[in-house]
Amino acid sequence: MKVFGGLEISAGPKEAELPPSEKKKLFTYQGVIDGIITGRIKRIAVLTGAGISTNAGIPDFRSPGSGLYSQMEKYKLPFPEAVFSIEYFLKDPRPFFTIAKGMTGKYVPTKFHYFIRLLQDKGLLLKNFTQNIDNLEGDAGVKKELLVQAHGSVAGAHCTGCGKEVDIKLMMAHIEKGEPLFCECKAPCKPDIVMFGEALPISFSMQMNDVASADLVIIAGTSLKVFPFSVLMDLAGPNTPRLVFDIKEPDKIKESKDDRNIFVPGNCEVSIEEFVHKLKLDVEFKALLAAREELRKKYEEEKKKAKI
Ligand code: OAD
Question: What CA–CA distance (Å, rounded) separates 267 from 265?
Answer without folding.
Answer: 7
